[in-house]
């Protein structure tokens, strides 16, 4: 459960009990999906509780708000302080943080008349679990950059993600893979994708996807480990023929893929580059040295 009777959240300028926080039923966000959120993880590291890539997440939250006209009167420093206090007040160390910016009552389709900030936190295991995933190509396409600002993490965009995930699950798969409007692969409903072919990682270029902070971290780690990464438009057939495939995201972390549309890949996961990256990522978030690491 995300909260109980004791859970403390930060909401509109104060630390309050989650069950006593009151939103306004006329909030613009509630009616139109016009809000912005983030998903961040904190880890119990060798150096104490640390929020991973907090600056990057709050930079993206500012970008998202500015992109769609929601006022953003916050500094990263203030948001990071509040986030640590939410963790501390709830006695959390390994936890997921959910900042959300909502807009006050406004029934017209005009830009936000103010910003309301919520920061909640809860314990959340690996979002997609630990087992290798069976993916299904979605019949829904990823939202188009011609219709939305896809780089912004806007609440309403996630109806697209909900449709895709639910469809995949209803068909007996673990998760969906969405194509972009041109038919190239885009991303999962809440995670980016990498494929391995001939000792090189490939990932969809920016343009139709959320620029994931984990995606950027995977690219960083790969550079450190001397693994080539190429960002480009990728066709479904290239995924079917991949040596290995993985998804990555803050909530999902790094998770291997067993099959896409029931087609499996050339390499066993344990021998894949993804397994090496997964191990390195875990060490990085725990503030341990991750260079010269091996998967086993
Ligand atoms: N794509 C989508 C659609 C997402 O919702 C997420 C999760 N925020 C990601 C990718 C991964 O982004 P990040 O690594 O920043 O969590």
Describe the structure.
Helix 2 packs across helix 3. It is built from seven helices and 16 strands. Strands 8, 9, 10, 11, 12, 13, 14, 15 and 16 form a nine-stranded mixed beta sheet that branches. The longest helix is centred in the N-terminal third of the chain and has 15 residues, at 54-68. The chain folds into two domains: 8-122, Aminotransferase class 4, branched-chain amino acid transferase, N-terminal domain (D-amino Acid Aminotransferase, Chain A, domain 1, 2-Layer Sandwich), CATH 3.30.470; 133-285, Alpha-Beta Barrel (D-amino Acid Aminotransferase, Chain A, domain 2). With 296 residues, the protein is of the alpha+beta class. 4'-deoxy-4'-aminopyridoxal-5'-phosphate (PMP) is lined by residues 39, 161, 187, 190-192, 210, 212-215, 249-250.
Helix/strand layout:
Blueprint: E1 8-11, E2 14-17, H1 28-32, E3 36-37, E4 40-45, E5 48-51, H2 54-68, H3 76-89, E6 95-102, E7 116-122, E8 133-141, H4 158-170, E9 175-179, E10 185-187, E11 192-197, E12 200-204, H5 213-225, E13 229-232, H6 236-240, E14 244-249, E15 253-260, E16 263-264, H7 273-285
Parallel strand pairs: 8-9, 8-15, 12-13
Antiparallel strand pairs: 1-2, 1-7, 3-6, 4-5, 4-6, 6-7, 9-10, 11-12, 11-14, 14-15, 15-16
Helix pairs in contact: 2-3
Organism: Flavisolibacter tropicus
Protein name: Branched-chain-amino-acid aminotransferase
Keywords: Amino-acid biosynthesis, Aminotransferase, Branched-chain amino acid biosynthesis, Pyridoxal phosphate, Transferase
């Amino acid at each position: 459960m995300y909260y109980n009777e004791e859970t403390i959240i930060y909401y509109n300028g104060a630390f309050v009990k989650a069950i006593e926080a009151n939103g306004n039923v006329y909030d613009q966000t509630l009616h139109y999906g016009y809000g912005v959120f983030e998903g961040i993880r904190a880890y119990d590291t060798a150096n104490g509780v640390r929020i991973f890539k907090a600056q990057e997440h709050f930079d993206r939250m500012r970008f998202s708000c500015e992109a769609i006209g929601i006022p953003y009167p916050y500094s990263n420093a203030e948001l990071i302080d509040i986030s640590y206090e939410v963790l501390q007040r709830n006695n959390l160390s390994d936890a997921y943080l959910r900042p959300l910016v909502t807009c006050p009552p406004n029934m017209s389709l005009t830009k936000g008349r103010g910003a309301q900030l919520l920061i909640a936190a809860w314990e959340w295991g690996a979002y997609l679990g630990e087992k290798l995933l069976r993916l299904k190509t979605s019949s829904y396409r990823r939202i188009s950059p011609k219709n939305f600002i896809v780089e912004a993490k806007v609440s309403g965009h996630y109806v697209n993600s909900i449709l895709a995930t639910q469809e995949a699950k209803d068909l007996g798969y673990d998760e969906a893979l969405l194509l972009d409007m041109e038919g190239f692969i885009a991303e999962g409903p809440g995670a980016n994708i990498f494929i391995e072919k001939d000792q090189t990682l490939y990932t969809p270029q920016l343009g139709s996807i959320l620029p994931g902070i984990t995606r950027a971290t995977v690219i960083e780690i790969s550079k450190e480990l001397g693994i080539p990464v190429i960002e480009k438009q990728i066709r479904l057939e290239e995924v079917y023929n991949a040596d290995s495939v993985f998804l990555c995201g803050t909530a999902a972390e790094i998770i291997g893929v067993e099959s896409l549309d029931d087609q499996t890949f050339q390499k066993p996961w344990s021998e894949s580059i993804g397994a090496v990256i997964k191990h390195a990522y875990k060490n990085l978030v725990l503030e341990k040295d991750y260079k010269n690491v091996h998967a086993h």
